[in-house]
Amino acid sequence: MKGRLVESAALVVRLVDSGEADRVVTLLTEKSGLVAVSARGVRKGSKRYGGVLEPMHRLHVTVEHPEREIARLEEARVDAMRLAITGHLEASLCAGYWLRFARALAHPHGDDGALFRVTDGALALLDANPLDYARLEHLVPFAMLGAAGYAIELDACVSCRKPCPPDRPSGVDGRRGGLLCRACGFASTVLSPELRSVLRQAHAGAFAPLDPSGRELAARLAQDVALQHVGRTVR
Ligand SMILES: [Zn+2]
């Protein structure tokens, strides 16, 4: 008897070989969060999946028993090919980082539709212009954090709630989830008003240009926020 079938858009976020011919594929699906599926015979070129189970592309999958620890992949096809990313080394590395970041934030069988759409949209943007990876790489994780409900507080102190004027520099502590005023403790990182504004936009899915020092700070901050929420950094 057939189990429950779920059809969804999906991204491959992890591939683990299993046995001689099979692979366990973790999907971030739009409808059911993270779903692990076994793809039988995929490494021996099974026609069933036609080589589509690769990261970067948007897939359309049909999964049987998505609630199980390992679901069965009934069908998979590519919805959007992203060959510009796969053909560009830095863009591939950037996309790989986003997919690991998305996997860290998502939940098994969870309500991660918004996170899926942000990640998929960012991959589409990168595919349209792979050279844009430098601007996008460390801002897209803020859009993912926003979509996952982990946006950091950028307008007021997380401890005493005192608002920080938009034109002033401010201390920020990613592990505490946002700005920290001087009266409430020491924050080792100082955000300029400009960078604060760029991060606020990134939370909402708009990616402004960023200089190298801003990129480095954004990268570190995203790691600290991930650590706070999921207990580990994402590399
Ligand atoms: Zn305070």
Could you explain how this protein is built, in words?
The chain is an alpha+beta fold. The chain contains seven helices and eight strands; from the N terminus they run βββββαααααβββαα. α5 packs across α6 (193-203). It starts with a strand and ends in a 5-residue tail after the last helix. The model has no long low-confidence stretch (mean pLDDT 92). It binds zinc ion.
Short description:
The protein has 235 residues and is α+β, with helices and mostly antiparallel strands. The chain contains seven helices and eight strands; from the N terminus they run E-E-E-E-E-H-H-H-H-H-E-E-E-H-H. A hairpin with a 4-residue loop joins strand 6 and strand 7.
CATH homologous superfamily placement of the largest domain: Recombination protein O, C-terminal domain
* Helicity level: 25-40%
Strand line-up of the largest beta sheet: 1-2-3-5-4
Overall geometry: elongated
Sheet with the most strands, sense and barrel status: 5 strands, mixed, barrel
Q: Quickly name the level 1 CATH class of the largest domain.
A: Mainly Alpha
Give the distance, in angstroms, between the N- and C-terminal Cα atoms: 42 Å
Q: Please name the CATH architecture of the largest domain.
A: Up-down Bundle
Note poorly predicted spans. Answer: none
- Count of helical regions: 7
List its salient traits.
five-stranded mixed barrel; 235 residues; alpha+beta; binds zinc ion; three-stranded antiparallel sheet; OB fold (Dihydrolipoamide Acetyltransferase, E2P); elongated
